[in-house]
Amino acid sequence: MERDMTGLMFPAGAAHPKFGNTESPDHVSGASHPSAPMNYISPLVDNTLPGVERRADLSPRELLEDYVRKSRPVVLTDAVKGWRALEKWTPEFFKERYGKLTKEIKGRTYSIAEQADWIMRSTEENPAPYPFNLNIEHYFPELVEDLRPQTVFDKVDRLLNPMMPKMFTKGTIKHEIFLGGLGSYFPILHVDVQSLHTQITQVYGSKEFFLYAPDQTPYMYPKPDRPLYSGVDNIFAPDLQQYPDFAKAKCHKVMLEAGDTVFFPTGWWHTTRSPGPSISYGRALVDRTNWGAYLDDTYRGWKAQRPLMAAPAMALCKVIGGAFNAMEAMRY
Ligand SMILES: O=C(O)CCC(=O)C(=O)O
Question: Which CATH class is domain 2-331?
Answer without folding.
Answer: mainly beta
